[in-house]
Specification:
- The protein is elongated and about 75 Å long.
- Helix content is about 40%, strand content about 15%.
- The chain starts with a strand and ends in a 9-residue tail after the last strand.
- With about 425 residues, the protein is of the alpha/beta class.
- The strands form two sheets. Strands 3-2-4-1-5-6 form a six-stranded mixed beta sheet, with helices on both faces.
- The relative contact order is 0.11.
- It folds into two domains: about 210 residues, 3-Layer(aba) Sandwich (Rossmann fold), CATH 3.40.50; about 200 residues, Phosphoglycerate mutase-like (Rossmann fold), CATH 3.40.50.1240.
Length: about 425
């Protein structure tokens, strides 16, 4: 019988962050750990799992639950998959107790302080594998969510095609963890033999190993009432004008022969109405996504910007509206990253995706993906005598194996 295992370490925890020994004791996922789990969940969404098993520690169970949001599986918790037991040093700060910890690491024996050694680990790991394999059939694929030191001991005790010491030394020389939080490794079990097929990789490293290209068409919504009144329009909303409807219809005519495999739209009505016009005849309905909403301008939402332009200009140029309870650049990068990650992972090679969103978010996208700051963008657009992000303007960009490229900015589009 042959079974393929996808091994995922849990996301970063409080004790990981504080550098505290964390074996059979537990601590919750940090915000970063949750983000890591979401990233790994996204990149594994197309992998079919016949079974999902995880350590009974909450940090592993929470990670497994997040990965399973894209699957029909319910994680089965096994105590045999818990982290290596460090005995009385479990829960102690690593730096403070380094002189006690290091000899036990070297000997790989913690039994004198109530923990495990290698023979005890082999005994329980084998019990865990026996329970998992008893549920499997030949050809099954299993997701296994466990821990870092657990995997390091599998390298030593179970995998026949890898030298644990060489592997760890190589990772140290590369200044990389031997299995990063939410890192993904792939190995097989076949008739009693375990072989490592893919060394632990971050979700990003795992993603770009696939030869895939995804194309994006980004279109700003049509003119709105607040656009005409020159009001700041971020999370707030106003309807399309007659001109805005006409702009969307004109853009739809230009897009009629373009094939879209999927479409996403900001959740505001002005973008949803624009998307509905653009997609007439395409047989698609745009999926609303709040991560595509316009920049939040906080307390300044709906104010006429001309009268306060000198005040807001620095915030506008820096994409930082935090002083008025709005978003800053880090907030915007985070949601753009999450959206692009999910849309790319959901797409197939060669897909073209329509995005209907907003003008200021477009400029943030340019800075985030291509390093084009607003000052440079405005200068180029002014020299061309055009709006840098006109209503229903179009911008096309692509992702290929981890790299984003584009051809023309919105204001450079041919009439």
């Amino acid at each position: 019988m042959k079974v393929t295992f996808y091994y995922v370490r849990h996301g970063e925890t409080l004790f990981n962050d504080l550098r505290i020994m964390q074996g059979k004791c537990d601590s919750p996922l940090t915000v970063k750990g949750i983000e890591q789990a979401e990233e790994t969940a996204s990149v594994l969404r197309h992998v079919h799992f016949d079974h999902v098993f995880c350590s009974s520690s909450e940090r592993a169970w929470d990670t497994a639950q997040m990965i399973c949001r894209y699957h029909d599986n319910e994680p089965v918790c096994l105590k045999e998959l818990k982290e290596f037991d460090f005995g009385e040093l479990d829960g102690e700060p690593i730096d403070r107790y380094y002189s006690l910890i290091q000899p036990h690491r070297i000997e790989d024996d913690w039994t004198d302080i109530g923990g495990e050694n290698v023979p005890l680990f082999i005994e329980r790991a084998d019990k865990g594998f026996a329970r998992m394999l008893s549920a499997c059939e030949d050809g099954d694929t299993v997701l296994m969510v466990s821990h870092g030191s657990f995997f390091a001991h599998l390298l030593k005790t179970h995998f026949v095609n890898i030298d644990q010491q060489e592997y760890i030394a190589r990772k140290h020389s590369e200044k990389k963890p031997f299995i990063p939080n939410c890192g993904i490794a792939v190995f097989t079990y076949e008739d009693g033999v375990y072989k490592l097929l893919s060394e632990p990789q971050t979700a990003q490293e795992f993603r770009i190993r696939e030869d895939k290209t995804v194309h994006f068409v980004y279109i700003r919504h049509g003119e709105t009432v607040f656009n005409v009144q020159k009001r700041l329009q971020g999370y707030c909303d106003s309807p399309l004008t007659e001109k805005g409807i006409q702009q969307a219809e004109e853009r739809a005519e230009k897009l009629k022969d373009m094939h879209f495999d999927c479409a996403y739209v900001s959740s505001t009505e002005r973008t949803r109405d624009t998307a509905e016009i653009l997609l007439q005849g395409h047989g698609l309905t745009a999926i609303p996504d709040k991560r595509l909403r316009e920049v939040c301008f906080g307390d300044l939402e709906s104010q006429k910007y001309e009268s306060i332009w000198d005040t807001i200009y620095p915030m506008h140029m820096l994409n930082d509206w935090s002083k008025v309870k709005g978003e800053d650049y880090e907030d915007l990068k985070e949601r753009l990253h999450a959206f692009l990650r999910d849309s790319i992972d959901a797409a197939k090679d060669g897909d073209t995706i329509l995005l209907v969103s907003h003008g200021d978010l477009y400029m943030v996208l340019l800075q985030y993906l291509f390093g084009i700051h607003k000052e440079e963008l405005y200068q180029k657009a002014n020299e061309a005598g055009k709006n840098p992000a006109g209503n229903c303007g179009m911008f096309r960009f692509s992702w290929q194996n981890g790299t984003f490229t584009y051809e023309k900015l919105m204001h450079e589009e041919e009439e």
